Amino acid sequence: MRRVYLDNNATTPLLPEVKQEVIEFLDIYGNASSLHKFGKESRLRIEKVREKISEYIGAKKNEIYFTSGASEANNLVLKGVSSCGKTCCPGKESNPHIITTVVEHPSVLNTCKCLEGLGVEVTYLKVDSDGRISLEELEKSIKTNTSLISVMFANNEIGTIQPIREIGLIAKKHNIKFHTDAVQVFAKENINVDDLNIDFLTFSGHKFNALKGVGGLYIRSKNHVCPLIHGGHQEGMLRAGTENTIGIISMGKALEYYMEHPETEDKILKMRNDLENYILQNISDTKLNGHKEYRLKNTVNISFRFIEGESILLMLDHLGIAVSTGSACSSDSLEPSHVLKEIGLDDDMAHSSVRISLGPLTTQEEIDYVKNNIKNVIDRLRSLSPLYNEA
Predict the structure, then answer these.
(1) Which of 228-261 are b and which e, b meaning 16 or more Cβ less than 10 Å from the residue's Cβ?
(2) Given a cut of 50, is residue 86 above it in pLDDT?
(3) Which of 15, 30, 130, 322 could be cross-linked to 209 through a Cys-Cys bond (beta carbons 3.0 to 4.6 Å apart)?
(4) Which listed residue (89, 114, 226, 329) is catalytic?
(5) Which residues pair with 177 in a beta bridge?
(6) What is the pTM of this model?
């Protein structure tokens, strides 16, 4: 059976170059904290990747910290800043205020819910029908004890990109720290933390064609964060535990690929637009979700009225085409996507949505294969739908 993978926002396959790099360096097994040659070799590789990442985002090398992924990194920022009260930072508010949004990734939303139980005050900004926040509402939400603004760079479900530079300026104006979950744009968009006034930025290797189980965090110098995992001295005393050397090496190689092939994103955008236009022009009762302009170049989220997105997913999967009905972190939930609900979709329309996300290994031939099959899939499912037949 033909296999077409179009669920790159959930996770990405290893690039051939990354796979080869991993194979070549599997024998680098020394503990990077050890002083012998085996350990020094691991340390050298890790520091080279740290430097590469810092150069990519315009940061200092010692401002990059490696973690097990973005979920851990998001927890580290939110809990680390919030717990930085009178106990470790005399003079600061013991019950800080965080501003975030209703469409964040669960690793941010659920962490904020946890913090609320510990006495932290959280404001959840609403979004418009395109998924963007109001800068005016953001500024109105700021309080004297606001310690952190956390807004994701781009949404993983609908692809909408937030006005990050403007948010950074507001945070800087009020002397508030700004964190962005940049998982979906890292390596794929130009990012400069000084230009965007970002204090904390999180990323994950498996979202840009590196190994799973490794990610990281940028922390602007002089910003204090309390550790989440205590133990050894690793990662500047901020994240204890032996570093995932092979995972970190894979991130470095993947980032190198993206930096050396800037044309990749334009190629992806062209294929995305081709598929998106075909669907909207040839299949009736469809709705594009997400901002038309400020959106990830690889993401299409469309609702197909009268049928379940899960049925579409399963029938496409039968044809070898992998797509998603929403965030991978909530794929086992029967509830409609919180993101689609927040942009105004009712339950039926939210349940009828499908997310298609392309990657650097996607080909035009694969897009043509989807175009040749998706209309037949929708037509067949609608012919079986009592809702469609009643309409």
Answers:
(1) bbeeeebbeebbeeebbbbbbbbbbbbbbbbeee
(2) no
(3) 15
(4) 329
(5) 148
(6) 0.94
Helix (H, G, I), strand (E, B) or coil at 158: coil
Distance CA 82, CA 119 (A): 10
User: Does residue 322 register a pLDDT over 60?
Assistant: yes
Q: Which CATH number fits domain 4-12+262-390: 3.40.1190.20, 3.30.1360.120, 1.20.1270.10, 3.90.1150.10?
A: 3.90.1150.10
Run of H or E residues at 122? strand 121-125
Q: Is there a contact between 12 and 359 (Cβ–Cβ < 8 Å)?
A: yes
Quick one: CA dihedral 2, 7, 13, 17, positive or negative? positive
**Is 329 an active-site residue?**
yes
What strands lie across the sheet with 121-125, from one edge to the other? Answer: 64-67, 215-219, 200-204, 177-181, 146-150, 97-101, 121-125
The answer to which of 40-49, 70-79, 269-278, 379-388 has the lowest mean pLDDT is 379-388
Q: Which helix (H) or strand (E) holds 315?
A: helix 309-318
